[in-house]
Every structure is written in structure tokens, then in C-alpha cells.
Design goal:
This is LOC100124864 protein. Keywords: Coiled coil, Leucine-rich repeat, Repeat. Pfam families: LRR_9 (PF14580). InterPro entries: Leu-rich_rpt, LRR_dom_sf. There is one protein chain. The protein is an alpha/beta fold and 260 residues long. 30% of the residues lie in helices and 7% in strands. The protein is built from five helices and seven strands, in the order ααβββββαββαα. The N and C termini lie far apart (103 Å).
């Protein structure tokens, strides 16, 4: 009889085991695992995941996870995807002091008070509670002001649901939005935001191993140029929008000629 695939075995167990992790990563020591993708395996229990003490990036999306207890041991964790599970408490994540990016869209988080445990995570800059593209959310997202409440609860956060809400670029973003809304009122016909491609919560290849140390400078330079290019595009859009607004206003305010 042929042996079943690793995914089939994982789905049957519903629990993370040492054998499963070694089989999927090729590592003999759980402490050597840095990146782990366990998406859509029907997992309900985290098992020995806490033994991967050097884990930096973990994807547990699209499973049946309820309790996060074992994650409290992951002090080195930087990015965590828990979207589309059955989580109602994030308390164990309070120990993940290096966490920067967290996706918990599509869970059972009912109140902003449930996010208080994340207040001490000073490096946490991005959090997803709602993903409109895949129609994922949490009960707390039913409040129209939940994003403001998140900012009050977790001061370090700069990006909520993929949208920058504070820090560099946010003022310009809101300025463009205000101008667009003004043009809608002036022109009457409406001026929609320029269409843009939908991006995932992390960039393509984010879960791939990081480049060797010798390539870090080159990678950093590349990322800097990408950010610079985004700033240039945003600035150009602002200039175009302001120019359009000025043309619209000048058309409406042209003086009437009188013949004497």
C-alpha cells in the first residue's frame, strides 16, 4: 500500500506533532525551524508548536484552531497568520514580544477589550481584523469606529486591515481622500478613487526563507527603492488630484463679463 501524503496525514491527526513538523520542513531539530506554513490542514490543536522556539514566521490560516496557548513560547515570532480559525482570545500572544504583523481576520473576537493583551507588543505595526476581499471579519468589526478603538488600544499599530492609519504617508493619503470627496460634490458626476490591484496581507514570497546574510544589504536597498517608488506614485496622484480640483473650482468661479 502506498504511503499517504503529508497533508493527508496532517489532516487526519488534527494536531501538530514533532513528526509532522520534521516531515514538512526537513529539519531534525524543532529549534532549527524558522519558517512554517501549515495552512488549511484541518488543525484543531497546536500541540508541540511551542517547541519551535526560534520560529519567525508562522501561517496557521484556514484551520479549526480555538486555543493559542502553545504560541506563548514563540518569543522570536515576527509574522503570524491566524486568519479563518475559531479564535476568541489572543491572550497567549502577549508574550510574543517581537511580533510585528498579525492577521486574525475571520475569527470570533467580540470586543476591543480582547485586544488589550496586545498593548505591550511595542513592535506590532500591522494587524488584520477584517479582510473585505475574502469576506472575513470578527464580531468587533461591526462597530463603525473599531479602527479608532484599535489605535487607542494598541498605540504602536500603523496599519489596520491593510490600510495605513498613522505614520509616514497617512496624512497624504487622507488629504487625497478628502480632495476626492470634495470633487464628487463639486462636479456632481462623482470622482471615484483610482482603481488599484488588491494586495494580500503580506507580499508574495513572504513565507520563503530569507536571503543569506551577504545579500541582506542588497535586499534592504531593493526594499528602500520600492518604498521610494510608492511615495513618488502617491505624490504624483496628489498633484494630479489637486490640479483637477483647482480646474473644477476655477470653472465654477469664473467672473461674469458685463457690458457698459
Amino acid at each position: 500500500m502506498e504511503s499517504r501524503s503529508a497533508k493527508e496525514q496532517d489532516s487526519d491527526s488534527g494536531r501538530i506533532t514533532s513528526q509532522m513538523l520534521k516531515l514538512r520542513t526537513g529539519e531534525f531539530d524543532l529549534e532549527s525551524i524558522l519558517f512554517l506554513k501549515l495552512r488549511g490542514l484541518g488543525l484543531a490543536e497546536l500541540g508541540c508548536i511551542g517547541d519551535c522556539t526560534n520560529l519567525e514566521r508562522l501561517d496557521l490560516s484556514n484551520n479549526h484552531i480555538v486555543h493559542l496557548g502553545p504560541l506563548s513560547s514563540l518569543k522570536m515570532l515576527v509574522a503570524l497568520n491566524l486568519s479563518c480559525n475559531r479564535i476568541s482570545s489572543l491572550e497567549p500572544l502577549a508574550s510574543c514580544e517581537n511580533l510585528q504583523t498579525l492577521n486574525v481576520a475571520g475569527n470570533l473576537l467580540c470586543s476591543i477589550e480582547g485586544l488589550q493583551c496586545l498593548k505591550g507588543l511595542r513592535r506590532l505595526e500591522s494587524i488584520w481584523l477584517r479582510d473585505p476581499v475574502y469576506n472575513l471579519g470578527n464580531p468587533l468589526c461591526n462597530s463603525a469606529s473599531y479602527r479608532h478603538a484599535v489605535l487607542d488600544t494598541i498605540p504602536s499599530v500603523r496599519v489596520i486591515d491593510g490600510q495605513r492609519v498613522s505614520g509616514t504617508g497617512s496624512d497624504l493619503y487622507h488629504l487625497c481622500k478628502d480632495i476626492d470627496n470634495s470633487l464628487k460634490r463639486v462636479l456632481g458626476s462623482g470622482l471615484a478613487d483610482a482603481p488599484g490591484s488588491v494586495r494580500p496581507w503580506v507580499e508574495e514570497g513572504y513565507w520563503d526563507p530569507t536571503p543569506p546574510q551577504s545579500d541582506l544589504i542588497e535586499e534592504t536597498y531593493k526594499q528602500f527603492n520600492e518604498v521610494l517608488q510608492e511615495c513618488k506614485e502617491l505624490s504624483k496622484r496628489a498633484d494630479d488630484t489637486i490640479a483637477q480640483a483647482e480646474r473644477a473650482l476655477s470653472t465654477r468661479s469664473e467672473p461674469t463679463s458685463f457690458v457698459f
